[in-house]
Specification:
414 residues; alpha+beta; 3 domains; five-stranded mixed beta sheet; four-stranded antiparallel beta sheet; 11 helices; rod-shaped
Protein backbone atom coordinates (compact mmCIF):
# COMPACT_ATOMS: atom_id res chain seq x y z
CA UNK A 1 0.00 0.00 0.00
CA UNK A 2 1.35 3.39 -0.97
CA UNK A 3 2.28 5.68 1.90
CA UNK A 4 0.07 8.49 0.58
CA UNK A 5 -2.98 6.19 0.56
CA UNK A 6 -2.06 4.84 3.99
CA UNK A 7 -1.87 8.31 5.54
CA UNK A 8 -5.18 9.28 3.93
CA UNK A 9 -6.86 6.09 5.22
CA UNK A 10 -5.48 6.42 8.76
CA UNK A 11 -6.60 10.03 8.98
CA UNK A 12 -10.10 9.01 7.90
CA UNK A 13 -10.00 6.12 10.37
CA UNK A 14 -9.09 8.49 13.19
CA UNK A 15 -12.17 10.55 12.44
CA UNK A 16 -14.36 7.51 13.05
CA UNK A 17 -12.58 6.38 16.20
CA UNK A 18 -13.56 7.14 19.76
CA UNK A 19 -9.96 8.10 20.50
CA UNK A 20 -6.41 7.57 19.27
CA UNK A 21 -2.96 7.81 20.75
CA UNK A 22 0.72 7.12 20.11
CA UNK A 23 1.91 4.15 22.12
CA UNK A 24 5.60 4.07 23.07
CA UNK A 25 6.51 5.89 19.87
CA UNK A 26 6.09 2.67 17.89
CA UNK A 27 2.39 2.27 17.15
CA UNK A 28 -0.82 4.24 16.72
CA UNK A 29 -3.71 2.84 18.79
CA UNK A 30 -7.32 3.56 17.75
CA UNK A 31 -10.32 2.83 19.99
CA UNK A 32 -13.66 1.89 18.36
CA UNK A 33 -17.11 0.84 19.44
CA UNK A 34 -17.31 -1.58 16.48
CA UNK A 35 -13.69 -2.66 15.99
CA UNK A 36 -14.30 -5.70 13.77
CA UNK A 37 -16.50 -3.77 11.38
CA UNK A 38 -13.84 -1.07 10.97
CA UNK A 39 -11.09 -3.62 10.45
CA UNK A 40 -13.04 -5.21 7.64
CA UNK A 41 -13.45 -1.84 5.91
CA UNK A 42 -9.65 -1.41 5.69
CA UNK A 43 -8.38 -4.83 4.58
CA UNK A 44 -5.14 -3.43 3.12
CA UNK A 45 -3.94 -2.07 6.48
CA UNK A 46 -2.29 -4.51 8.81
CA UNK A 47 -3.82 -3.98 12.27
CA UNK A 48 -3.09 -5.63 15.60
CA UNK A 49 -6.01 -6.15 17.92
CA UNK A 50 -5.58 -4.88 21.47
CA UNK A 51 -8.14 -5.77 24.08
CA UNK A 52 -11.77 -5.70 23.01
CA UNK A 53 -12.04 -2.24 21.44
CA UNK A 54 -8.66 -1.16 20.06
CA UNK A 55 -6.76 -1.56 16.83
CA UNK A 56 -3.05 -0.76 16.54
CA UNK A 57 -0.82 -0.13 13.52
CA UNK A 58 2.91 -0.69 13.96
CA UNK A 59 4.84 2.32 12.62
CA UNK A 60 8.02 0.28 12.17
CA UNK A 61 6.24 -1.68 9.43
CA UNK A 62 5.82 1.53 7.42
CA UNK A 63 9.06 3.55 7.03
CA UNK A 64 8.38 7.28 6.84
CA UNK A 65 5.05 7.10 8.71
CA UNK A 66 4.63 9.32 11.78
CA UNK A 67 1.80 9.97 14.20
CA UNK A 68 2.04 13.80 14.42
CA UNK A 69 4.44 16.76 14.15
CA UNK A 70 5.84 16.21 17.63
CA UNK A 71 6.71 12.56 17.03
CA UNK A 72 8.16 13.41 13.61
CA UNK A 73 10.51 16.02 15.11
CA UNK A 74 11.42 13.62 17.89
CA UNK A 75 12.30 10.60 15.75
CA UNK A 76 13.42 12.00 12.37
CA UNK A 77 17.03 11.68 11.26
CA UNK A 78 19.02 12.39 8.10
CA UNK A 79 17.95 9.02 6.69
CA UNK A 80 14.27 9.87 7.16
CA UNK A 81 14.35 12.25 4.20
CA UNK A 82 15.60 9.58 1.78
CA UNK A 83 12.04 8.17 1.50
CA UNK A 84 8.52 9.61 1.36
CA UNK A 85 7.10 10.93 4.63
CA UNK A 86 3.57 10.78 5.98
CA UNK A 87 2.21 12.49 9.11
CA UNK A 88 -1.26 11.28 10.09
CA UNK A 89 -2.16 14.27 12.28
CA UNK A 90 -0.79 17.60 11.04
CA UNK A 91 -2.53 20.77 12.25
CA UNK A 92 -5.99 19.20 11.94
CA UNK A 93 -5.14 17.62 8.60
CA UNK A 94 -2.62 15.10 7.31
CA UNK A 95 0.65 15.64 5.46
CA UNK A 96 2.42 13.68 2.77
CA UNK A 97 5.91 14.60 1.54
CA UNK A 98 7.23 13.16 -1.71
CA UNK A 99 11.00 12.78 -1.42
CA UNK A 100 11.84 12.73 -5.15
CA UNK A 101 10.01 15.93 -6.05
CA UNK A 102 10.34 17.62 -2.64
CA UNK A 103 6.59 18.24 -2.76
CA UNK A 104 4.49 18.76 0.36
CA UNK A 105 0.84 17.74 0.13
CA UNK A 106 -1.68 18.66 2.83
CA UNK A 107 -5.19 17.17 2.60
CA UNK A 108 -4.49 16.03 -1.01
CA UNK A 109 -3.51 19.57 -2.02
CA UNK A 110 0.03 20.70 -2.83
CA UNK A 111 1.36 23.17 -0.27
CA UNK A 112 4.52 24.77 -1.73
CA UNK A 113 4.71 27.38 1.05
CA UNK A 114 4.79 24.82 3.86
CA UNK A 115 8.42 24.43 4.97
CA UNK A 116 7.94 22.09 7.94
CA UNK A 117 9.58 18.99 6.43
CA UNK A 118 12.39 20.80 4.61
CA UNK A 119 13.16 22.94 7.64
CA UNK A 120 13.68 19.79 9.72
CA UNK A 121 15.87 18.31 7.00
CA UNK A 122 18.09 21.38 6.60
CA UNK A 123 18.31 21.87 10.34
CA UNK A 124 19.98 18.46 10.63
CA UNK A 125 22.21 19.22 7.62
CA UNK A 126 23.29 22.55 9.12
CA UNK A 127 24.00 20.87 12.43
CA UNK A 128 26.35 18.41 10.71
CA UNK A 129 28.03 21.02 8.54
CA UNK A 130 28.58 23.40 11.42
CA UNK A 131 30.36 20.63 13.30
CA UNK A 132 32.98 20.52 10.51
CA UNK A 133 33.51 24.28 10.55
CA UNK A 134 36.71 25.86 11.82
CA UNK A 135 34.49 28.18 13.82
CA UNK A 136 33.90 25.28 16.22
CA UNK A 137 36.81 24.49 18.55
CA UNK A 138 35.26 21.13 19.46
CA UNK A 139 31.91 19.34 19.46
CA UNK A 140 30.39 17.21 22.21
CA UNK A 141 27.64 14.91 20.94
CA UNK A 142 26.91 13.63 24.47
CA UNK A 143 26.30 17.16 25.74
CA UNK A 144 24.75 18.27 22.43
CA UNK A 145 26.91 21.36 22.12
CA UNK A 146 29.52 23.13 20.09
CA UNK A 147 32.28 24.98 21.93
CA UNK A 148 33.63 28.17 20.41
CA UNK A 149 36.83 29.71 21.77
CA UNK A 150 38.09 33.12 20.72
CA UNK A 151 41.26 34.84 22.08
CA UNK A 152 39.42 38.15 21.84
CA UNK A 153 35.88 37.27 22.97
CA UNK A 154 36.37 34.23 25.18
CA UNK A 155 34.42 30.96 25.20
CA UNK A 156 30.83 30.14 24.23
CA UNK A 157 28.91 26.88 24.50
CA UNK A 158 26.43 26.68 21.62
CA UNK A 159 23.96 23.98 22.63
CA UNK A 160 21.15 22.35 20.68
CA UNK A 161 18.04 20.43 21.87
CA UNK A 162 17.59 16.68 21.80
CA UNK A 163 14.54 17.06 19.55
CA UNK A 164 14.63 18.89 16.22
CA UNK A 165 13.00 22.30 16.85
CA UNK A 166 10.13 23.63 14.78
CA UNK A 167 10.86 26.91 13.03
CA UNK A 168 8.32 29.52 11.95
CA UNK A 169 7.10 28.89 8.42
CA UNK A 170 8.62 32.18 7.20
CA UNK A 171 12.09 31.00 8.28
CA UNK A 172 13.29 28.98 5.29
CA UNK A 173 16.24 26.83 6.33
CA UNK A 174 16.96 25.73 2.77
CA UNK A 175 17.89 29.34 2.02
CA UNK A 176 19.87 29.55 5.26
CA UNK A 177 21.85 26.50 4.23
CA UNK A 178 22.56 27.93 0.75
CA UNK A 179 23.79 31.12 2.40
CA UNK A 180 25.97 29.16 4.80
CA UNK A 181 27.46 27.07 1.98
CA UNK A 182 28.30 30.16 -0.08
CA UNK A 183 29.92 31.82 2.92
CA UNK A 184 33.60 32.68 2.83
CA UNK A 185 35.57 29.81 4.39
CA UNK A 186 38.91 31.53 4.97
CA UNK A 187 40.45 31.41 8.43
CA UNK A 188 40.24 35.18 8.86
CA UNK A 189 36.57 35.29 7.89
CA UNK A 190 35.61 32.45 10.22
CA UNK A 191 37.41 34.24 13.06
CA UNK A 192 35.14 37.27 12.48
CA UNK A 193 32.07 35.00 12.34
CA UNK A 194 33.08 33.31 15.59
CA UNK A 195 33.45 36.67 17.31
CA UNK A 196 29.97 37.79 16.22
CA UNK A 197 28.42 34.49 17.33
CA UNK A 198 29.97 34.78 20.79
CA UNK A 199 28.88 38.41 21.17
CA UNK A 200 25.32 37.87 19.90
CA UNK A 201 24.37 34.47 21.33
CA UNK A 202 26.10 34.44 24.70
CA UNK A 203 22.92 35.21 26.63
CA UNK A 204 20.77 32.32 25.32
CA UNK A 205 20.05 29.12 27.21
CA UNK A 206 21.92 25.98 26.24
CA UNK A 207 19.31 24.33 24.00
CA UNK A 208 18.21 27.60 22.38
CA UNK A 209 21.64 28.74 21.25
CA UNK A 210 22.16 26.79 18.01
CA UNK A 211 18.57 27.22 16.72
CA UNK A 212 18.96 30.93 17.42
CA UNK A 213 22.24 30.88 15.49
CA UNK A 214 20.35 29.54 12.46
CA UNK A 215 17.61 32.17 12.76
CA UNK A 216 20.19 34.96 12.93
CA UNK A 217 22.54 33.51 10.32
CA UNK A 218 21.82 36.26 7.77
CA UNK A 219 22.70 38.98 10.27
CA UNK A 220 25.83 37.16 11.45
CA UNK A 221 27.13 36.63 7.92
CA UNK A 222 26.34 40.22 6.92
CA UNK A 223 28.28 41.56 9.93
CA UNK A 224 31.17 39.18 9.21
CA UNK A 225 31.22 40.25 5.55
CA UNK A 226 31.65 43.88 6.58
CA UNK A 227 34.47 43.07 8.99
CA UNK A 228 36.21 40.89 6.44
CA UNK A 229 35.90 43.55 3.75
CA UNK A 230 37.51 46.10 6.06
CA UNK A 231 40.25 43.58 6.87
CA UNK A 232 40.94 42.83 3.19
CA UNK A 233 40.91 46.51 2.25
CA UNK A 234 43.28 47.30 5.10
CA UNK A 235 45.61 44.50 4.02
CA UNK A 236 45.43 45.67 0.41
CA UNK A 237 45.98 49.25 1.55
CA UNK A 238 49.14 48.33 3.47
CA UNK A 239 50.42 46.48 0.41
CA UNK A 240 49.40 49.43 -1.75
CA UNK A 241 51.36 51.80 0.49
CA UNK A 242 54.42 49.58 0.33
CA UNK A 243 54.26 49.33 -3.46
CA UNK A 244 53.62 53.04 -3.84
CA UNK A 245 56.64 53.88 -1.69
CA UNK A 246 58.73 51.75 -4.02
CA UNK A 247 57.29 53.62 -6.98
CA UNK A 248 57.90 56.90 -5.17
CA UNK A 249 61.56 55.96 -4.86
CA UNK A 250 61.60 55.22 -8.58
CA UNK A 251 60.17 58.68 -9.23
CA UNK A 252 62.84 60.19 -6.98
CA UNK A 253 65.46 58.29 -8.97
CA UNK A 254 64.03 59.67 -12.22
CA UNK A 255 64.11 63.19 -10.80
CA UNK A 256 67.73 62.72 -9.69
CA UNK A 257 68.68 61.58 -13.21
CA UNK A 258 67.10 64.71 -14.64
CA UNK A 259 68.96 66.85 -12.12
CA UNK A 260 72.26 65.21 -13.07
CA UNK A 261 71.56 65.91 -16.73
CA UNK A 262 70.70 69.49 -15.85
CA UNK A 263 73.85 69.95 -13.77
CA UNK A 264 75.98 68.66 -16.63
CA UNK A 265 74.54 71.32 -18.90
CA UNK A 266 74.51 74.10 -16.28
CA UNK A 267 78.23 73.66 -15.57
CA UNK A 268 78.98 74.23 -19.25
CA UNK A 269 76.96 77.47 -19.53
CA UNK A 270 79.22 79.91 -17.64
CA UNK A 271 82.31 78.42 -19.28
CA UNK A 272 80.79 78.80 -22.75
CA UNK A 273 79.55 82.33 -22.13
CA UNK A 274 82.84 83.48 -20.60
CA UNK A 275 84.84 81.94 -23.42
CA UNK A 276 82.57 83.49 -26.04
CA UNK A 277 82.67 86.96 -24.46
CA UNK A 278 86.46 86.82 -24.09
CA UNK A 279 86.90 85.64 -27.68
CA UNK A 280 84.69 88.45 -29.00
CA UNK A 281 86.65 91.01 -26.98
CA UNK A 282 90.03 89.68 -28.18
CA UNK A 283 88.82 89.59 -31.78
CA UNK A 284 87.33 93.09 -31.81
CA UNK A 285 89.92 94.09 -34.43
CA UNK A 286 89.02 90.99 -36.48
CA UNK A 287 85.27 91.25 -37.32
CA UNK A 288 85.24 88.02 -39.29
CA UNK A 289 86.72 85.99 -36.43
CA UNK A 290 84.41 87.64 -33.92
CA UNK A 291 81.40 86.89 -36.14
CA UNK A 292 82.38 83.20 -36.38
CA UNK A 293 82.62 83.02 -32.57
CA UNK A 294 79.25 84.72 -32.09
CA UNK A 295 77.51 82.55 -34.70
CA UNK A 296 78.96 79.42 -33.03
CA UNK A 297 77.80 80.67 -29.65
CA UNK A 298 74.30 81.46 -30.95
CA UNK A 299 74.03 77.94 -32.36
CA UNK A 300 75.30 76.53 -29.04
CA UNK A 301 72.85 78.61 -26.97
CA UNK A 302 69.91 77.66 -29.20
CA UNK A 303 70.85 73.99 -28.95
CA UNK A 304 71.23 74.28 -25.15
CA UNK A 305 67.81 75.94 -24.94
CA UNK A 306 66.38 73.09 -26.96
CA UNK A 307 67.97 70.57 -24.57
CA UNK A 308 66.48 72.48 -21.64
CA UNK A 309 63.13 72.26 -23.39
CA UNK A 310 63.46 68.47 -23.69
CA UNK A 311 64.39 68.22 -20.01
CA UNK A 312 61.37 70.31 -19.20
CA UNK A 313 59.21 67.92 -21.20
CA UNK A 314 60.64 65.01 -19.18
CA UNK A 315 59.89 66.76 -15.90
CA UNK A 316 56.34 67.60 -16.89
CA UNK A 317 55.75 64.11 -18.27
CA UNK A 318 56.95 62.71 -14.96
CA UNK A 319 54.46 64.92 -13.14
CA UNK A 320 51.67 63.91 -15.50
CA UNK A 321 52.33 60.18 -14.98
CA UNK A 322 52.41 60.57 -11.20
CA UNK A 323 49.16 62.55 -11.24
CA UNK A 324 47.48 59.91 -13.41
CA UNK A 325 48.65 57.13 -11.10
CA UNK A 326 47.27 58.91 -8.03
CA UNK A 327 43.90 59.33 -9.76
CA UNK A 328 43.80 55.63 -10.68
CA UNK A 329 44.46 54.70 -7.05
CA UNK A 330 41.71 57.04 -5.88
CA UNK A 331 39.23 55.47 -8.29
CA UNK A 332 40.09 51.86 -7.46
CA UNK A 333 40.73 52.07 -3.70
CA UNK A 334 37.89 51.85 -1.16
CA UNK A 335 39.93 53.23 1.71
CA UNK A 336 41.44 56.54 2.64
CA UNK A 337 44.60 57.30 0.67
CA UNK A 338 45.81 60.45 2.45
CA UNK A 339 49.08 58.73 3.24
CA UNK A 340 49.62 58.14 -0.48
CA UNK A 341 48.88 61.76 -1.26
CA UNK A 342 51.46 62.78 1.34
CA UNK A 343 54.05 60.51 -0.25
CA UNK A 344 53.18 61.82 -3.71
CA UNK A 345 53.43 65.42 -2.48
CA UNK A 346 57.12 64.85 -1.75
CA UNK A 347 57.73 63.91 -5.36
CA UNK A 348 55.55 66.76 -6.66
CA UNK A 349 57.60 69.26 -4.64
CA UNK A 350 60.84 68.06 -6.21
CA UNK A 351 59.28 68.10 -9.67
CA UNK A 352 57.98 71.66 -9.21
CA UNK A 353 61.39 72.81 -7.95
CA UNK A 354 63.17 71.20 -10.89
CA UNK A 355 60.66 72.68 -13.33
CA UNK A 356 61.08 76.15 -11.86
CA UNK A 357 64.87 75.79 -12.00
CA UNK A 358 64.72 74.88 -15.68
CA UNK A 359 62.58 77.92 -16.48
CA UNK A 360 64.95 80.22 -14.57
CA UNK A 361 67.96 78.75 -16.35
CA UNK A 362 66.28 79.18 -19.73
CA UNK A 363 65.58 82.84 -18.96
CA UNK A 364 69.10 83.30 -17.61
CA UNK A 365 70.61 81.77 -20.76
CA UNK A 366 68.54 84.12 -22.88
CA UNK A 367 69.73 87.14 -20.86
CA UNK A 368 73.38 86.10 -21.00
CA UNK A 369 73.09 85.48 -24.72
CA UNK A 370 71.78 89.02 -25.03
CA UNK A 371 74.88 90.31 -23.19
CA UNK A 372 77.25 88.40 -25.50
CA UNK A 373 75.45 89.69 -28.59
CA UNK A 374 75.43 93.23 -27.18
CA UNK A 375 79.21 93.11 -26.67
CA UNK A 376 79.64 91.80 -30.22
CA UNK A 377 77.51 94.55 -31.74
CA UNK A 378 79.63 97.20 -29.99
CA UNK A 379 82.60 96.24 -32.16
CA UNK A 380 80.82 95.80 -35.49
CA UNK A 381 79.78 98.29 -38.13
CA UNK A 382 76.19 97.03 -38.17
CA UNK A 383 73.80 99.97 -37.69
CA UNK A 384 72.11 100.21 -34.33
CA UNK A 385 68.64 99.57 -35.72
CA UNK A 386 69.75 96.37 -37.39
CA UNK A 387 71.66 95.33 -34.28
CA UNK A 388 68.56 95.69 -32.16
CA UNK A 389 66.49 93.80 -34.74
CA UNK A 390 68.98 90.92 -34.94
CA UNK A 391 69.25 90.83 -31.15
CA UNK A 392 65.48 90.65 -30.77
CA UNK A 393 65.22 87.98 -33.51
CA UNK A 394 67.83 85.72 -31.92
CA UNK A 395 66.34 86.22 -28.45
CA UNK A 396 62.84 85.36 -29.71
CA UNK A 397 64.21 82.30 -31.47
CA UNK A 398 65.97 81.15 -28.30
CA UNK A 399 62.88 81.65 -26.18
CA UNK A 400 60.81 79.81 -28.78
CA UNK A 401 63.21 76.89 -28.61
CA UNK A 402 62.91 76.98 -24.83
CA UNK A 403 59.17 77.25 -24.27
CA UNK A 404 57.34 76.32 -27.48
CA UNK A 405 54.90 73.50 -26.79
CA UNK A 406 55.24 73.56 -23.00
CA UNK A 407 51.80 75.03 -22.45
CA UNK A 408 50.11 71.67 -23.03
CA UNK A 409 47.38 71.59 -20.39
CA UNK A 410 47.75 67.92 -19.62
CA UNK A 411 51.07 68.66 -17.91
CA UNK A 412 49.56 71.10 -15.48
CA UNK A 413 46.90 68.96 -13.80
CA UNK A 414 48.59 68.96 -10.42
Amino acid sequence: MKLNDLVTGLHELAGRSVSHKLDSGESIVFKFDNRDEIKNEFPNISFDKIGKEELAINLTDYPGLFYDKVSFLQYCSNRTFETDIGIVFYDGSYLYFEANTKTTIINSTAAPTDNFIENAQYYLILREEFKKSKVVSYHSSSNREYVLISPEYGKLTLGYPLVVPEFPNNVILKEKYALYESMNKTQEYEAFLKGHIIKLLGSYEHDQAFPEFIKRLNHLIEASNKDYEIFVNKFSFEKLKENFKKERDEYFSAVRDLINQLLAKVVAIPVSISASALAVYNLKSDPVGATVVVVAYVIYSLFTSYLFRLLNYDVLELRHELTKEIEMIKDSSKVEIKILELEAAKVFRKIRTLNSTLIILQLLLAILSTVVLFVYFQFTLIPTNYSILLLALILDLQLAFSFFGLNNKRYFTQ
